[in-house]
Write a sequence for this structure.
């Protein structure tokens, strides 16, 4: 028997597999989806690979080598995920191995490492082993010499193992037996009170099947000895069970299902009756999309199926996670990048074993190994964080749609401001479009006031808060209501500006200005991490007149405090949320009304539901518009609509104040009216004329090299290859320099292809992908991005 294996060899990445012989001993365990260790190349090099298929024969019979050993006794990827990986490698122009690896928790992606195994306790005690039975092969020549000597003497063995494999802990639990506890209490009377207390405890909690020894000890001061006595007497059994590392997601709200409004009911019915067609659930902010998701998920769970829910970024949406957990309890697994490696691995295991049947998570959760999928929900489907910006550059929405087709289950794309791509598909009836036009309590959408900042522009002191905004804040605080203030930071930074010569300090390695970080008094490059102390005088002209330009949350906070001395303010930005869980804590404090104003960056725009918030202010609506990206208007419209939707969600009416230098801009105007329909029409017009998605597809190729001329040369060569396969109206842009043309001393050029239906083009791009390895040996890096979310 032969196995087709996709191997993990950085210098040999391609889109195909290699054949290996399955040794007879391993025949029963080598099945598709298990990981194996195989020899690769001429040397004795061993690498990890994934078995894709098992075959009776091989074309390459003569050359095939045998599999060295097997890493998994059961497959880590099921047939669905294997099929998905093969589609994904085509779709995203990425290597097969990275598609396979990306589906697994990080700890399972590790490489094979060479290890030394001590054969005697004396060796184990040596300074090299330091009491451990196995050590990774050391790098120093001296240590290697020592090991070689020991090996010759038969004192150690040299072997290979996968580094860093996650291990979960086991714990002892006390399990109840079905006994009549009333009787037991009687027979126990007069005995040790701790035993009685334990019996009483189980009596009081009839649902409780088991409790860990650790919990007994810590929470109830009942010792293991007491528990053991009762086990001996036959009242309980004890057992060892796996103890999963559970991510700390904060307090869980216990939410009862609510009676759906008429509009919600209609949407719900459409979802549960949907066949294979995806559903675009377009509902204004506060229309109760979450309740629909939860009840639809409940419906499919009752059918014995599983449910997957994607949210843009878990740390930003703790309220959503709390609701899912509140509704579905311990069946829920949470997956996102904020978990520790161990927690991630354990959550993955619980899903794999079928113990968790509901998954809520960010982008990569789309690969959760749920079997028998009943429904997939993508909340805020328009969010750009669903696109992975690194290899493999996949879009979680496309992956979810693939899984929906595979499982024949509904995929619900929810948003108040759908991406133009999705809405266009809804229009073409490729998706079923379901609209929610009313908020749950019939509240009107909040009125929006646009404040023209140009009027205050001439003031000598440039303030960030206009009079109308301050007045609204005062009024809001008088009523003991709360406000959310957004500081739009996209494309924005704090620079140091020389007021004499106009120079802004630049990164020596990248073509970008350095950003001021007041906290540690440094200038920092966001691309390469270069940093230095904030200089006293200008490098260029020697002037000491240096000034910060730009607005920061700290600065606005100060200004706010001066204007409203009694206001209690919570500031939420990268600085105040750097620590794990701090995001949630700040939001909790705000929810418990321990503050009046929540001031923050983009991270406060999404999904927050605070009934006492009646005012939303946007400090600068413009920064997003300044960008040259064709999605700039769409992003601005989405952000403003989302954040406006945080006001007046309960019974109290809300208000929104938007400050801008472009009061006539259509994205701002239409967001103020929450008029998605008009925005969609207008923006589609622009996209049509400028030949952008959803009318055209895009592929972006980025070419870099340490020498500018070399990068440019390859970019031209690729352009020459691509041009002949383009069809009428299809366009190749470039080579052009991206906005930041040099990063870490590499020079960048990019090509953008706009195309419609062109299989030969895709074929060519795949060919280019496969050649990339060859180029990389000459110092080139080529990355290919299908459907790029960012044009820069
Ligand atoms: P969206 O996600 O569409 O912006 P939410 O799902 O956050 O809106 O719902 C808005 C508010 O209405 C929430 O506080 C939610 O708990 C509440 N809600 C949703 N559906 C109902 C319902 N059927 N009855 C009562 N309250 C509801
Ligand atoms: Zn200067
Ligand atoms: Zn840099």
């Amino acid at each position: 028997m032969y196995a087709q294996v996709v191997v993990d060899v950085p210098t040999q990445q391609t889109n195909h597999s290699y054949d290996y012989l399955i040794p007879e001993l391993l025949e029963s365990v080598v099945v598709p989806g298990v990981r194996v260790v195989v020899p690769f190349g001429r040397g004795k090099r061993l690498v990890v690979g994934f078995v894709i298929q098992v075959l009776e024969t091989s074309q390459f019979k003569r050359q095939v080598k045998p599999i060295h050993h097997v890493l998994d006794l059961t497959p880590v990827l099921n047939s669905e995920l294997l099929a998905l990986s093969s589609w994904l490698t085509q779709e995203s122009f990425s290597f097969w191995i990275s598609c396979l690896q990306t589906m697994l928790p990080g700890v399972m992606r590790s490489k094979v490492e060479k290890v030394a195994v001590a054969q005697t306790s004396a060796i184990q005690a040596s300074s090299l082993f330091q009491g451990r039975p196995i050590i990774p092969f050391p790098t120093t020549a001296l240590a290697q010499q020592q090991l070689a000597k020991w090996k010759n003497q038969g004192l150690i063995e040299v072997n290979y193992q996968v580094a860093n494999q996650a291990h979960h802990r086991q714990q002892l639990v006390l399990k109840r037996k079905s006994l009549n506890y009333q009787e037991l209490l009687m027979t126990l009377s007069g005995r040790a009170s701790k035993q009685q207390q334990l019996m009483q405890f189980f009596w009081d909690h009839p649902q409780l099947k088991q409790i860990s020894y650790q919990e007994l000890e810590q929470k109830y001061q009942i010792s293991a000895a007491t528990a053991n006595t009762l086990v001996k007497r036959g009242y309980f059994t004890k057992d060892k069970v796996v103890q999963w590392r559970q991510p700390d997601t904060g307090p869980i709200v216990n939410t009862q299902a609510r009676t759906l409004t008429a509009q919600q009911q209609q949407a719900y019915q459409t979802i549960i009756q949907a066949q294979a067609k995806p559903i675009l659930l377009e509902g204004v902010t506060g229309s109760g999309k979450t309740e629909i998701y939860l009840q639809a998920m409940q419906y499919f769970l009752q059918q014995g199926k599983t449910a997957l829910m994607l949210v843009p970024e878990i740390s930003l949406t703790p309220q959503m996670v709390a609701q899912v957990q509140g509704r579905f309890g311990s069946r829920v697994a949470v997956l996102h990048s904020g978990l520790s490696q161990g927690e991630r691995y354990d959550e993955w295991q619980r899903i794999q074993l079928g113990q968790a049947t509901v998954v809520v998570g960010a982008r990569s959760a789309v690969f959760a190994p749920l079997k028998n999928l009943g429904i997939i929900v993508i909340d805020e489907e328009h969010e750009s964080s669903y696109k992975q910006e690194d290899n493999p550059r996949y879009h979680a929405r496309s992956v979810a749609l693939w899984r929906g087709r595979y499982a024949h289950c509904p995929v619900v794309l929810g948003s108040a401001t759908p991406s133009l791509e999705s809405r266009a598909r809804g229009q073409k009836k490729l998706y079923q479009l379901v609209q929610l036009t009313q908020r749950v309590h019939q509240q009107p959408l909040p009125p929006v006031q646009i404040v023209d900042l140009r009027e205050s522009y001439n003031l000598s002191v440039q303030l960030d808060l206009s009079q109308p905004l301050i007045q609204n804040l005062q009024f809001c605080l008088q009523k003991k209501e709360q406000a959310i203030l957004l500081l739009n930071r996209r494309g924005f930074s704090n620079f140091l500006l020389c007021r004499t010569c106009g120079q802004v300090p630049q990164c020596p390695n990248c073509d970008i200005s350095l950003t001021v970080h007041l906290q540690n008094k440094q200038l920092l490059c966001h691309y390469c991490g270069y940093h230095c102390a904030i200089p006293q005088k200008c490098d260029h002209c020697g002037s000491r007149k240096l000034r910060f330009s730009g607005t920061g949350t700290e600065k606005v906070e100060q200004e706010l405090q001066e204007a409203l001395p009694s206001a209690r303010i919570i500031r939420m930005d990268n600085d105040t949320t750097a620590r794990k869980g701090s995001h949630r804590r700040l939001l909790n404090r705000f929810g418990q009304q321990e503050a009046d104003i929540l001031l923050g960056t983009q991270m406060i725009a999404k999904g927050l539901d605070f009934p006492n918030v009646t005012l939303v202010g946007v400090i600068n609506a413009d920064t997003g518009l300044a960008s040259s990206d064709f999605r700039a208007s769409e992003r601005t419209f989405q952000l403003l609509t989302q954040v406006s939707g945080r006001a007046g969600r309960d019974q109290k009416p809300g208000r929104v104040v938007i400050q801008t230098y472009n009061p006539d801009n259509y994205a701002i105007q239409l967001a103020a009216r929450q008029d998605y329909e008009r925005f969609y029409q207008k923006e589609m017009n622009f996209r049509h004329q400028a030949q952008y998605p959803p009318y055209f597809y895009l592929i972006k190729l980025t070419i870099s090299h340490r020498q500018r001329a070399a990068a440019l040369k390859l970019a031209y060569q690729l352009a020459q290859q691509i041009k002949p396969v383009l069809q009428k109206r299809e366009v190749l842009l470039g080579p052009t320099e991206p906005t930041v043309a040099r990063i870490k001393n590499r020079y960048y050029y990019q090509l953008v292809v706009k195309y419609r239906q062109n299989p030969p083009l895709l074929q060519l791009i795949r060919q280019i992908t496969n050649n990339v390895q060859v180029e990389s040996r000459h110092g080139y890096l080529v990355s290919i991005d299908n459907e790029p979310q960012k044009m820069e």
User: Anything to note?
Assistant: The chain has six domains: 2-110, 112-163, 170-242, 262-436, 448-493+550-686, 697-786. The first strand starts at residue 2 and ends at 7.
